[in-house]
Design brief:
The structure holds 2 protein chains of 2 kinds. By secondary structure, chain A is an alpha+beta fold. Chain A has one domain: Alpha-Beta Plaits (2-Layer Sandwich). Helix content of chain A is 29%, strand content 39%. Chain A is built from 2 helices and 4 strands; from the N terminus they run E-H-E-E-H-E. A 4-stranded antiparallel β-sheet of chain A has the order 2-3-1-4, covered by helices on one side. The radius of gyration of chain A is 11 Å and the shape is globular. By secondary structure, chain B is an alpha+beta fold. In chain B, helix 9 packs antiparallel against helix 21. Helices cover 53% and strands 18% of the residues of chain B. The C terminus of chain B is likely disordered. Classes of the chains: A alpha+beta, B alpha+beta. Chains A and B meet through helix 1 of A and helix 1, helix 3, helix 5, helix 7 and helix 8 of B.
Amino acid sequence: MQKATIQLETLTCPSCLQKIENAVKSLTGIEKESLKVLFNSSKVKLNFDDQKISINEIENAIKKLGYVVKKSQVKAQ
Amino acid sequence: MQRFILGKKNFITIISAILIITAFTSKLAFDNIDIFVWLLAIASILGVLPIAIQAYQALKVKVVSIDVLVTIAVIGAFVIKNYEESAIVTFLFLFGAFLEQRTLNKTRSAIKELTEMAPENALKLMENGEFEEVEVDEVDVGDVLLVKTGAKVPVDGTVLTGEGHINEASITGESVPVNKKQDSGVYAGTILENGTIQIRADRVGEDTTFGKIIELVEEAQDSKSEAERFIDRFSKYYTPIVLLLAIIVWLISRDIELAITILVLGCPGALVIGVPVSNVAGIGNGARHGILLKGSEVIQDFSRVDTIVFDKTGTLTIGNPKVAETEVYVDNVDEVLGYLASVESESDHPLANAIVEHIGKTKIYPVENTNVVKGGGIVAYVEGQRVAVGNVSLMEQENVTLNEKVRADITRFEENGNSLVLTSINGILQLLIGIRDQIRPGVKAELQRLKKLGVKNLVVLSGDNQSTVDLVAKELGLTEAHGHMLPEDKANRIDELQRKGHIVAFVGDGVNDSPSLALAKIGIAMGSGTDVAIETSDVVLMNSDIGRLPHALGLTKATANNMRQNIFIAVGVVLVLLASVFFSEWMNMSIGMLVHEASILVVILNGMRLLRYRLSGKNRKI
């Protein structure tokens, strides 16, 4: 399991959270309970299985919604 | 293409504004309806593009977002050829979003300032023996790092070589630089003001004290109270319900105009954004003043506190005992004081320090055969004479006779809250000294402020002796004071208070009081953020100044109020808008959108007031 923290550009609408949450949840290899989308700090935190999915794929899922990914940090757990 | 359009949102907003203005000018000044209609149609199409893209993306992940409602409404207006409405609504929606982003950034600025204090680079000792600049993420535990004057300490570590002064304000809130030399601990995020040091990395990244503080604050600003979770659940169903309502109204009344107006008016914006905005601004204000509040639940609880328990008298006193009273039983005072000062200079006991400080400059004699009696004092020889300095039981061991006058003095000194130090020479009593702690300057006023803020009970549970505690309690007007308390006694007492229905905040240093910190509704850790304190408490006061406490309490009250105001504004606006659709003539889509966007800005601006919050009647610098 890898722990990722993805920093997005400032989120302004709370419904963005729902969009990002649903989009990331639908990916395979994500630990669903660990997924947290933080509104004020504009961050996505989650654990994922790097055998099944890469951080780039997760980033792309968010980018496709139209949000800018500033940087992400991945740490082995 | 989608991303391109979204990226140009601000540009589109400006174009759309220009188009709308030109359209109205051509209609009003030149009476040209054709151009008017065309321009507005173009503005509508252009303006709805980014909104529609966002709506489409939301629907793809099964979310009925505000974008969906607005897109349908705009398309509806377009279909019935009401270009005026469709253009103005899209413009207002885009412009509103732009203003929201700008103002939201402001409310978040306080916390951002804090996180931006995190170190980014480090000078790391490489294998070739040279220091190279690397990103702080690349530093591992055990690495040797160089910190130059003016640089941030990148990690928590230990000084290997060098010396300097470090400003630890980011950790302790104390801006007086601290001297660091070999083997001193240094903290990430602190600044080396002078000197150069080499350090060994002990803790890196999120494990450092600073990393933990940042993580705590970041989680806190997004933590949700019960009320917020309710709003969240509610808003998940709210937007689809509005959509459904609009469809039903359309089916029944066959009035597209009415249906799309409902779509716009039903947007929940201010409701979902109101509470998080107050939360982030309140927590941000706290962080700026060295007060870490762990989330909105804590804010709600703390704002209702009626009992504050202090863990020791030391929080309220200077913690620096001073000689308060002296009784002399002999004539050759100067000689005795010289002996006493000489013996006490051998010790670093706080009472001994107080005595040495009190006596000041005097003749110092050589001291021989110093013997520290545990729980008693010191026995030593000065110029061949046996000098004993200590408490009553030491005097008894030394077979010193204490006559009636002396015993009466002892009782009086104890009643006044003194610790006693007696001095005998060759078994004959010379001096009785009473030493006690002083109340911290300003504490009385701070406690008064707490009372004004609605705290009814101020309690001290202390390990000190009862007379010391009583004295402090009397001087400060505390409601309750217990001495001789062990940590578990404190926890029991807190439990008792809470069972009586009090909302208790416990102020402790977090080292040996974690049970009480955890048990009290609000655990407040004081002093430089030790890890235990940060983890078990609900509120962390970054330095040990209790002057922050009234600010913290006032701030949580203001924040809780602010949230209530925002919920009230948001709900009120939606109700008024929906009611006026059905009962008034003047309501239309554009006015609805205007009021709606205005209400969002109002709640954000209202939240922003918290950033400037200061306790009134407080003129000292905080």
